[in-house]
Structures are given as C-alpha cells and as structure tokens.
C-alpha cells in the first residue's frame, strides 16, 4: 500500500541560520490492510513521518510510494498540489491531537462534509454522521453547536469521527488518544478495528503502549530505524 524509501527532512531556522535534521534515511513498508505503529522518544521525528506522507511537510529527498486507486503508484514527495488535495479528500485520512474548525460550521456539518466530499448524498451523509457522533459519545445537544467551544476531548473525538467516517484507504493517526479517558479510548479502538476489517491501511503514533497491544501488525522503532514484526 505504501513504501517510504530513504526519506529525508530538515527544517531551516532562518533567524539562527541553522538547519535542523528531522529525518535521515527513513525507510519502511506497510502492506495493504495492515497497521504499522511508530514508537520513539519525543522529538525523534514520528509526527514528521506522518506529516511528510500527508504532505503537510515537503521532504528534501527520498520517495513515498502510495498505491492510489485514482493515480496508480504515485510518489507523494513529487505529487502536485491538485493530486494531494484529491488524495486527502478521497483516499488518505489524517487525525492529529488538534481540531482545525471551519468558522460557523457545526459539529454535525463537519462530519457530514467529510462524506459529501466523497459524493455521498446529503441524506446518507447526515445519517452516517449522526451514527459517528453517537459512537464517539458526542452529546446530541452539541451536534448543532460550533466546536470551538468544545472541550479538548470533545474536539479530539470529533476530529476522529470526521476521519474514520470516510473509511479512507490509508489513515494516519498522530496521538489520537492523547487526551481521552479510557472509555473514549475503547471507542477509538473499536473504530480502528472496524476500519482494519474493512481493509483500511493504518499508520499510527501512540504513547499509550497498552492501547497498541494486539492492534498493530508491526512496529517501527525510531531509535533503531528498523521495523520489527510482532509475534
């Protein structure tokens, strides 16, 4: 599904005239329908890998070969902005710890829009959005409210709902359970397990190693720069 080859990324601190290396020679492979977990200490570059795949960051060197349904094998490092926008709408999802809300858009409308982008009818989008909000225990009284007033946990659950409702071919998870209680974590786990059954490929970062237990098919250790199969 996705193969990262010798990926390199650095950041330029202009006012200090310095270049800070973030990723140096990262290579990994994720088979279709599997879940790769990335572990490592803070600052080791875990999130940078996901943001490079999602093209939030542009890499300086290397390849990210994605088996796209629309474009065939495409190098995400070289993909055009138009191709990136299409892939984000239709094939690749991303969940971070933070929710970027659209102004004057309710929680229900945010989840609905994720489905409308795929060409789902308004009626079906509403029904599926309501199901997703219920699954992640977002109070029905909040569905027609603006998320900028939500708590951190509510925003995170809404963010996850917007991503998983689309059932993307590839889903990137950047600490999606960071501020959630145990009950909410179980809801996230249920959603991930359902996506796996339906064929979604996943790459995730979790500091909660217990959460990853039995969920990931393989682990990539940033400190060792190598992937290990779980037994």
From TrEMBL:
InterPro entries: AAA+_ATPase, ABC_transporter-like_ATP-bd, ABC_transpr_CbiO/EcfA_su, ABC_transpr_LolD-like, CP_lyase_PhnL, P-loop_NTPase. Residues 2-231 form the ABC transporter domain. It holds the Pfam family ABC_tran. GO terms for molecular function: ATP binding; ATP hydrolysis activity; lyase activity; transmembrane transporter activity. SMART domains: AAA (SM00382). GO terms for cellular component: plasma membrane. This is Phosphonate C-P lyase system protein PhnL. The gene is phnL.
